[in-house]
Amino acid sequence: MTSKHAPTSETHVPSWHPVWVALLGSLWLASVGNYALWQQVHQLPEVTGLRGLAFALGFGVIITSALTAVLSFLNWRGWLKPVLSVFFLSAASGAYFMVSYGIVIDSTMITNVVQTDTKEALDLLNWRMLISLLVLGILPCWVLWKTPLQVLRLRQQIWSNTLTAVVSVVVIVAALLAIFQDFSSIMRNHTQLRYLVNPLNSYYAIGMVAAKPFQRDNKTLLPIGKDAQMATPKPNEKPPLLLLVLGETARMGNFGVNGYERQTTPALAKENIISLKGVMSCGTSTATSVPCMFSHLGKEDFEARKNNYESLIDVLHHAGLAVLWIDNQSGCKGVCERVPQALTKELKHPTLCKDGECFDEIMLNQLDERIQALPAERRAKGVVVVMHQMGSHGPAYYKRVPDAFKKFQPECKSNALQECTREQVVNSFDNTILYTDHFLGQAIQWLKKSEATAASAMLYVSDHGESLGENNLYLHGLPYRVAPDVQKRVPWITWWSPQFEKQLGLSRTCLQNKVQMPLTHDNYFHSVLGLVNVSTEVYQAKLDVHADCRSRS
Questions:
Q1: Which one of 1.10.940.10, 3.40.720.10, 3.90.1150.10, 1.20.1250.20 gives the CATH number of domain 221-549?
Q2: Integer Cα distance of 459 and 276 in angstroms
């Protein structure tokens, strides 16, 4: 008996040579994945007409060939699809943030990502990001994994990869020679473009961060200011009580006391404060600025350092002062690790805390008890309290402010700032300044209550500024040399009690004359030491903004 089978047919799906898959993947990344780059290129005044088109095409060829060359070193059996998938997903993520907030990706931005806590990360999530990941990342990944690849023998794979790398380099050189004059000029005048080449910018930045341990000895912390000591108090003098408020993301120009068109600082306007307007930050992110401003090195030497050193906080501690760091944010970035600390951002309070986050006023709660817990012999010499604000941390500005201080309306109630009008974004940010003003006003009131036993003072300085949509830029973190001034110009506000002013022989008129003087975070370390009359070999009077404004040395 003979069995009969119905004829069958198989659909044959042709397999692809790995080189073609790598090339097509590179084309996708260089074109769609680099939308942020091409958006910037299109806006350049130099890129016009046929010559501008030739530059753009040549630049695109260079990026495609560079990506193909990189993939040629990773194009081995079983590797290509996973590697390209990582490229697609990282490019999708980078493209979203660069397009949405106008940021660029460099080593500083990667450091920020590494040091971002869960709450800060969740503030960045929204449906636009999900769509970006789906279209730019998951979709090409799906197509890639549905595509069958030819399996090459080892000798064939080596030959194919070598030829691909050589051809890619030749194409890069040819394209570069063809557009060299425009390329060199544009890349020199618009250095931000190099940080937009996606996803190579991310991998280069990760490499730079990974290389830092080899460039700097991070295992050893060198001591400074071990010789620090306070001046001998005169009869009837009270120990100093200095409150250092470390602001977050506050723009100098949005403070009413600095001439802003809106009255965002009504509480400070009622106090006898002095606000310096010419201060530039050390960096454009918390991870850079905070360690730098508490360092004795200054910006240039801090960035080039081969070793890590103790901070201003350590010097104050060496001088015998009672030092307390209170943090309502993501930590002190290493500068306060050797003194008592209090973390407040996850405390429970019926009105000051909600949704796992606390408003800055929580740092004033139970403050007297925290200070009393410090060693009595140190408190007798003086107390320095540092308060690290949540301040104006974006993009979810609306979360930083209690309802009672949301004066400027309508506000942006989204963490996708591009969904809001610029008016809404500015309103939300100005509300954070209004609340910071209230917080500083409450801090001054607390200091005034301490005048019976201490000579009190407050110094408020922000770590960096913020972009609020100017030129389609949002947030902060751009490389310092290309960042706009609004990301670098920070408020510096001083308040002294009459007793503090008298003991140090401070001249208010002298400091008032420095309101417009160009200053930087480099002045912070030495100015703080001067305020509490600490002498040490690392102190530099020329960098102390108060040095020539006080009669007591």
A1: 3.40.720.10
A2: 11
